[in-house]
Amino acid sequence: MLENEEAKSKEQQNIDKELKNSEASELTTAKSHGEILKQQIVEGQETYDKNPVSILLSSLTAGLEIGFSYLLICTLYYFLQDKVEEDTIIKLMSFLYPVGFIMVILGQSILFTEQTSLLTLPVLNKKRSLKSLLKLWGLVIFGNLIGGYIIAFFLVWIGPRLQIFDLSTIEKIAVHVTDYDKMIIFASAVLAGWLMGLLSWLIAASKSTLSRIVIIFMITAVLAFTGLHHSIVGNVEVFAGLISSPAITISGYLIFIGLALFGNAFGGAVFVALLKYRAFVYDVKG
């Protein structure tokens, strides 16, 4: 038992040593796996060290800003309806979907799905506890959801008055998002969480703002084009339907948001954080 604990302690020391030695060079064109991992762990730990009120406000801001993606897709849908086939409109919406993500991520607001794997890494590296991770996730999710509720109420009110979309548009988008079997929504959310975790990893690997914009656009456009379920954008889409249409019920909303959040968290934490971290650990072991 004692020997096993000593072996684990030694292994952790080796991992920390390798991470410490992973220093990014301005002369290299690409960062190594260790350099990216180190940056992700450091950034994750910085979030843990922030004041809870600061985290909540940043998360609230992200929930509000992501609403601009919803504003654009509603406006496009309304503009093109009866002019273009509905399935074509849905695909075209994917080119506007990334706008809110670009605002949120480049603006350094805290978005749950983009931060999922980032916040998991310090736990895997034994620098933070699982309890602290769940507490932080809860705070970020709460802020993102509240921000989403606020922007949904505002857009449901302002959209018809500006005549850029109507309540029928809101209902159609909400029904489109939720009209799937529960297991399909969960599996779709896992893939979306996986993509968002990769987005965080790829952004850490990039060195310029332009490359980050391209990466954000590429990943989130793929997510939208394939119809994968993102919990925070989906929250705005479905909640807007809930407050403006009888087609969305409170139970339907709660089931959707629960499945989407759990699926996104699973996809980001397992398929990105865990696998990326374990790949580095096995490399250290040699």
Question: How is this structure best described in words?
Answer:
- This is Formate/nitrite transporter family protein.
- Keywords: Membrane, Transmembrane, Transmembrane helix.
- Residues 1-27 are annotated as: Disordered.
- Its main location: membrane.
- The chain is mainly alpha-helical and 286 residues long.
- It has one domain: Glycerol uptake facilitator protein, CATH 1.20.1080.10.
- The protein has 13 helices and no strands.
- It has helices at 2-21, 33-48, 52-65, 67-80, 86-92, 98-106, 112-124, 130-162, 167-178, 182-205, 209-225, 231-244, 250-285.
- Helix 7 (112-124) packs across helix 10 (182-205) and helix 7 packs parallel to helix 13 (250-285).
- The two termini are 24 Å apart.
- The model has no long low-confidence stretch (mean pLDDT 90).
Instruction: Please state roughly what percent of the residues sit in beta strands, choosing from under 5%, 5-15%, 15-25%, 25-35%, 35-45% or over 45%.
Output: under 5%
Question: What structural category arises from helix and sheet content?
Answer: mainly alpha
The helix content, as a percent range, equals over 70%
Give the C-level CATH assignment. Answer: Mainly Alpha
Average predicted local confidence, pLDDT: 90
CATH homologous superfamily (4th level) name: Glycerol uptake facilitator protein
Domain module count: 1
Instruction: Count the E strands.
Output: 0
CATH architecture call? Up-down Bundle
CATH topology: Glycerol uptake facilitator protein
What Rg is obtained from the alpha carbons, in whole angstroms? 20 Å
Largest sheet: none
- Count of alpha and pi helical runs: 13
